[in-house]
Write a structure and sequence with these properties.
Oligomer: heterodimer
Strand order of the largest sheet of chain B: 1-2
CATH architecture of the largest domain in chain A: 2-Layer Sandwich
Structural class of chain B: mainly alpha
CATH class of the largest domain in chain A: Alpha Beta
Radius of gyration of chain B: 21 Å
Helix content of chain A: 40-55%
Number of strands of chain B: 2
Chain lengths: 354, 173
């Protein structure tokens, strides 16, 4: 597996299948772990970071995961490749931007990602398409067990797994689901959902995690509490709110179709029209229009295009993906032209239903 | 156990001063607590913002308290508590031991709990695994009682009792 191949595929989590996949894009669980005998990454010198990296990297070789892993030395990757991994959600923005020895192991389906020397020595992440948190937990916990056979993790009877930031201590777990909530955004009811989630100590973030905007009406819902609850309990909490949100979004969609079908049909068709004919388009407008198109497709207001194609466009129209496909560095206005051209090609021949 | 803020003896009295709506915890040994309380009485009403003796002491303790904490340094990674407070990231696993008393209120405000009940490493010795199970079961019991799931609570109580007996047996061997 090489990075070039990423621009030709879409990854498991964008497959657009799985239970409730019209609303739940993907499920993800990550675990934060640290080696007992080293300082946390933010406080290590270059030599220690290198030692940690080679120690864990050696261990990854013997890990059996559901797919064959390839290691990327993030430190020696150029900026564009690092950005590509961020757009792909295989590494965090922080991991791309810090310095020193670090890396990530990923499989060709992109369901497993193992980051070395992010904020913690080891960050294990498992991802599935649709609503599938239990499968994520089984796999990530199994990978954790395998590492643990060979590595001594920093653990205290009182505080559990010790992490660089006290917000992750205990289980070191982050359980999250990525949701597409266009109707709740359109009806401005989404704030009420967030309010209810905050009361349950659940966090809401945008597509690219902490501090990122909610591009394309995508939202990530995840736990904030990591200490004093079992992993199963935390997973249950996240799972318990989903049926309500899914139901709420479905009802909002239904109400839109019932009360303002023409208006909605018009909006969706225009979105499709602009995407098929624009000569230059920003990333922000693309996300916005794709979100409309995705909802329209789910509601049967447009047809002739596959859901995986729409899902893929969300990622392939991001700056690093476009530049990798073109194999050249592009300025912002050149990217807008390249983006419009790419979208036109992908949507060519698709007619909307009238 | 916490040490007295005035001397090095173990603190047995834990006083929470409310001053201008801000809670200030004081941990004192019996002797120092007596001194403190009598000085509060001598200085007049504790609630009185311009009261003298008591106020000065509270101010001094508060200052001493945070300066003390800020100066704490981890012997393994060299980070001070002050550095942690400004960066929000700890330096190494040992910090959780060195800064324990200072971290507890922080963890309480983030997670509402301070005792881990989740997964534990498999290499952990059997005895401490059982102790850990006990902690988890007690936490489950607490929430079962809160949620009025009495049947579940009874079952948990049985399991706790059995585990306690096993532990006593194993520790006496």
């Amino acid at each position: 597996m090489d990075l070039e191949s990423l621009t030709r595929t879409s990854g498991e989590w964008l497959r657009g299948s799985g239970p409730d996949s019209d609303i739940v894009i993907s499920s993800r669980i990550r675990l934060a772990r640290n080696l007992a005998q080293f300082p946390f990454p933010p406080r290590t010198d270059d030599a220690t970071r290198a030692e940690i990296e080679s120690l864990i990297r050696e261990r990854i070789r013997s890990i059996e995961s559901s797919e064959k892993l390839t290691y990327f030395d993030v430190n020696t990757l150029d900026t564009l490749d690092r950005q590509l991994l961020v757009e792909r959600q295989l590494i965090s923005r922080e991991h791309a931007e810090t310095h020193g020895s670090r890396g990530v192991s990923v499989g060709p389906m992109e369901t497993v990602s193992i980051m070395i020397n992010e904020e913690d020595h080891l960050r294990l992440q498992v991802l599935r398409s649709g609503f599938a948190l239990d499968e994520c937990w089984d796999e990530v916990s199994r990978i954790d067990d395998e590492f643990e056979k060979h590595l001594e993790f920093a653990f205290s009877e009182e505080f559990g797994y010790l992490t660089s930031c006290p917000t992750n201590v205990g289980t070191g777990i982050r359980v999250s689901v990525m949701l597409h909530l266009p109707a709740l955004v359109l009806t401005k009811e989404v704030q009420r959902v967030f309010h209810a989630l905050h009361k349950l100590n659940l966090a809401v973030r945008g597509l690219y995690g902490e501090g990122s905007q909610a591009m394309g009406d995508f939202y990530q819902i995840s736990n904030q509490i990591t200490l004093g609850q079992t992993e199963q309990h935390i997973i249950k909490t996240v799972k318990s709110v989903l049926p309500n949100i899914i139901d709420y979004e479905r009802r909002a969609r239904k109400a839109l179709v019932k009360d303002s079908r023409e208006q909605l049909h018009d909006q969706v068709s225009r979105a499709f029209g602009i995407l098929r004919s624009a000569q230059t388009i920003t990333s922000e407008e693309t996300m916005h229009l794709l979100s409309s198109l995705r909802m329209g497709l789910n509601l049967g207001l447009v047809s002739g295009i596959e859901m995986p194609t729409v899902n893929e466009l969300f990622i392939h129209t991001q700056p690093a993906h476009l530049q990798k496909m073109r194999q050249e560095t592009l300025g912002s206005s050149e990217r807008n032209v390249a983006r419009a051209t790419y979208i036109r090609q992908r949507l060519a021949g698709h007619e909307s239903e009238n | 156990m916490k040490k007295c803020r005035r001397c090095t003896k173990p603190a047995t009295l834990h006083i929470t001063e409310i001053r201008n709506g801000v809670a200030q915890p004081l941990h004192l040994c019996e002797k120092c607590a007596k001194k403190y309380l009598s000085s509060v009485e001598a200085g007049g009403n504790v609630e009185d913002p311009v009261g003298e003796g008591g106020n000065e002491l509270v101010a001094a303790l508060a200052g001493e308290d945070s300066a003390d904490a800020d100066a704490l340094t981890c012997p393994q990674c060299g980070i001070t508590f002050k550095q942690f407070r400004s960066q929000g990231r700890l330096g190494c696993p040992h910090d959780y031991v060195v800064f324990r008393d200072e971290l507890i209120p922080l963890l309480e405000s983030i997670h509402s709990e301070t005792q881990h009940v989740g997964k534990i490493p498999q290499r952990t010795p059997a005895i401490s695994r059982k102790q850990h199970d006990l902690i988890r079961l007690r936490s489950d019991l607490k929430s079962a009682v809160q949620n009025e799931k009495y049947e579940e609570a009874a079952d948990l109580r049985d399991r706790i009792r059995r585990l306690e007996e096993e532990l006593v047996e194993e520790q006496s061997n």
